[in-house]
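Exercise: predict the fold of this chain.
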Amino acid sequence: MLILGIESATQQVGCALGGHEGVLASAHSARGRRHAEAIAPQVQFVAQQARVELQDVSCVAVDLGPGLYTGLRVGISSAMAIAYALGVPMIGVSSLDLLAFAVRHTNRLIVAAIDARRSELFYACYRQVPGGIQRITKAQVGTPHDLATELSAANEEKLLVGDGARRYCEDFDRLQKTEIAEQGLAHPSASSLVQLAHARALREEFVKPWELKPIYLRMPDADINWNTHNS
């Protein structure tokens, strides 16, 4: 089974191709909010690098968020369009799951945190389990202070991962037994997306394109601004 993964929840955009042989090719770029311009060329690039035809893809995986609204909308709509064109099913994966999966080999409490703008974070906690990671808290939105307060009660070693953890690192510096993962792990990975999607594909956990539901956790900034100006 060949899986195409498209990831666009943060400022980074990524695509990858892979299956039972692992990840065959991947590409990532950070171009601000120019997600729409990056996805199509990346899809073509990874197909060329993997030496496969897009017609050989049997499933399209996509990052469902939470993340930046514009990026998510572009990534999900692009993935749906490709799935429709190829006539293949889809698999959706949380951006927080992708961050945690990249550091799955640690025995510490994993805390995935994405910059939600407006001094807030999208975050969730995970633990290592055989073969991957398990989410142990629901995905939620809150301030860095909210998260730091929650983590201060956990008397164990913690690993924070994501651009939100790095941006608000001063809020977590005072916590004991806490480390922030390196910059190279700050964004969800399309390679992790393909790996997680492949495991779900083996269990036939597919959805139809129209069944995908983005994980926003809060209203888009434009809607919030409109409501504020008209209240």
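Check your answer against the key: The longest strand covers residues 22-30.
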